[in-house]
Design a protein that fits this description.
Structural class: alpha/beta
CATH class of the largest domain: Alpha Beta
CATH architecture of the largest domain: 3-Layer(aba) Sandwich
Strand order of the largest sheet: 6-7-5-8-4-9-10-13
Number of helices: 11
């Protein structure tokens, strides 16, 4: 053997993960290095779901080691992902069956928040993660329509309800409970917040890596309940380039900061419009607003999506873009945003609450 484990690590320290922009060693992805004669095997364990690029990463690692270690004969690399729980607000009870909760919020309505939430969830699932979506918009639930789900959830034990499912997602919404698409929710604030808590904690979530919470617009009762009672790993803010939308988005961002919820980044919807007839590109709602907001608040611009009729049509049909056109350019943008969200969460502080035993003091 003419090379050692240290040589393997030194070689991998020069190789940058294209998703985290860190080398695989400092990113703690390199596991189980084994050297037998002139053969080497190892595992690359990613902290974020990336099933569609596992093979690319495997080939990249193999090529790097073959170039850096001239005497190596066979290089075996196994690439996989493992999502772990990350820290949330202090003093908030965790949700059984859920590792990480991602809140998707907007300052105002009509910016495409729900469409972004469902495509984000579907993109994470496409990368191999176990994903659920909670429709927290009690007054205007839209996820049942977007996911093409009808019917009502059932209970197996009489205590919890089973999530509805389609397209590989576990889903829960008040929309599954009410009769008729036109039935209004005429509830006061306390009823709404209680409904959110029940939907979250009485649903039998099955070992989710991520639960995406589609919030109603604004900074009202639901958002306050989320901050006080829901263990949120991070929030994604959705806006458009329009000045009014950005003004409200800034308020939403500041609200999350004040209650101790980390901001993952900002998604800009309707960034540009390309005419389907002539191909002319036009910034109907302005340009650069999302990027400027990110610079002002030192957060990340996760991506921009076009104003495209197909996004609306596909969501209305019950097959959002990531499902309807998985290899299309718009779906690729959603997947890039989802991977960036997952990487940002993977870089956050871990949740060690499960490591420590509960201490009970009793009088004897």
């Amino acid at each position: 053997m003419s090379f050692t484990e240290a040589d393997v690590k030194n070689a991998l320290m020069q190789l940058i993960d294209p998703n985290t922009h860190k080398d695989f060693v400092s990113g703690k992805s390199v596991k189980n290095i084994k050297i037998t004669g002139n053969d080497v095997s190892l595992d690359i364990l990613l902290g974020y779901p990336a099933q569609c690029v596992w093979e690319d990463i495997r080939m990249m690692v193999v090529a790097d080691l073959q170039a850096a270690l001239p005497d190596v004969e066979k290089v075996s690399v196994n690439v996989s992902s493992k999502v772990i729980p990350h820290a949330v607000q202090r003093g908030v009870e965790l949700v059984a069956g859920v590792k990480n909760i991602i809140a998707v919020a907007s300052g105002k309505g009509g910016v495409g928040k729900s469409t972004t939430a469902v495509n984000l969830a579907l993109a994470l699932a496409a990368e191999g993660a176990r994903v659920g979506i909670l429709d927290a918009d009690i007054y205007g639930p839209s996820q049942p329509t977007m996911l093409g789900i009808t019917g009502q959830p059932k209970s197996r034990d009489g205590k919890s309800i089973e999530p509805m499912s389609n397209h590989g997602l576990q889903s829960m919404s008040i929309g599954y409970m009410i009769q008729g698409d036109d039935a209004p929710m005429i509830w006061r604030g306390p009823m709404v917040t209680q409904a959110l808590d029940q939907l979250l904690r009485q649903t039998h979530w099955d070992n989710l890596d991520y639960l995406v919470v589609d919030l109603p617009p604004g900074t009202g009762d639901i958002q306050l309940t989320l901050a006080q009672k829901v263990p949120v790993t991070g929030a994604v803010i959705v806006t458009t380039p329009q000045d009014i939308a950005l003004l409200d988005a800034r308020k939403g961002l500041k609200m999350f900061e004040k209650v101790g919820i980390k901001i993952v980044g900002i998604v800009e919807n309707m960034s540009t419009h390309i005419c389907s007839n002539c191909g002319h590109e036009e910034h109907i709602f302005g340009s650069g607003g999302g990027a400027k907001m990110c610079a002002d608040y030192n957060t990340e611009f996760l991506g921009g999506l076009p104003l495209d009729i197909r996004i609306r049509e596909q969501a209305d049909s019950g097959k959002p873009t990531v499902i309807a056109d998985p290899d299309g350019n718009i779906a690729k943008v959603y997947k890039q945003i989802a991977r960036r969200v997952a990487v940002k969460i993977a870089e956050m502080a871990q949740d060690h609450s499960a490591v420590f035993p509960k201490i009970v003091v009793q009088n004897t």
